[in-house]
């Protein structure tokens, strides 16, 4: 799919990973709708950076945990763009809305995570595809270790929500395959200017040092641009036969073995 002149919606693109995705798409000539919930000024800055790259765009405010807001968001896409070629589901609530260990989490916090991920992707994809021509692209930004680990205890609600999101992408990949619409997951590792970057400074620095010490073979944390590059690759014609897959963009961290000390793994 040549990207020049295509139309994309990237939810949660006012900053962080979402902004990185929006800017990389804009560099390829994609017109990008910048979605935000509360960060209006940051969304304006993202749009300004898109325009500085020669791209066009729009700003859309919506709470993706609310079905009526999701419908309103796509109604605005239809008015602004007329169609949609790329849908990237990236938005999540702030940490305070869901970040509690399993024995303490409230139902409201649980629902905040589930509704922002599984429900938002379910409804978003259903509505987005009504605006999409054949051979379009749908990409969910997840954290796939959530589906197989339980060590990051305060992540329980978001971990369960991301696991459900991952499963939904596979179901939609099958449902939309005959239209040539690909549906994939990108799973970032530790990434600067992301959810881990908004943990207390000493926590993020400990995470960064751990990965730089060798837990990530490339010895650094990721950047929003790294994730944006991966999204761009999946949107190209050459990726038209890749669907229902989880792509780990983590510098190799996901292939490391937690059983063995780094000194043994690295010889």
Folded structure, characterized:
The protein has 267 residues and is of the alpha/beta class. The protein has a single domain (7-265), classed as Rossmann fold (3-Layer(aba) Sandwich). 42% of the residues lie in helices and 13% in strands. It contains eight helices and seven strands, in the order E-H-E-H-E-H-E-H-E-H-E-H-H-E-H. The protein has helices at residues 16-27, 40-52, 67-80, 107-128, 156-176, 201-215, 224-235, 262-265, and strands at residues 7-10, 31-36, 57-61, 86-89, 137-141, 182-188, 246-249. Strands 3-2-1-4-5-6-7 form a seven-stranded parallel beta sheet, with helices on both faces. Helix 1 packs parallel to helix 2 (40-52). The radius of gyration is 18 Å and the shape is globular. The mean pLDDT is 94.
List the helices and strands and how they pair.
Blueprint: E1 7-10, H1 16-27, E2 31-36, H2 40-52, E3 57-61, H3 67-80, E4 86-89, H4 107-128, E5 137-141, H5 156-176, E6 182-188, H6 201-215, H7 224-235, E7 246-249, H8 262-265
Parallel strand pairs: 1-2, 1-4, 2-3, 4-5, 5-6, 6-7
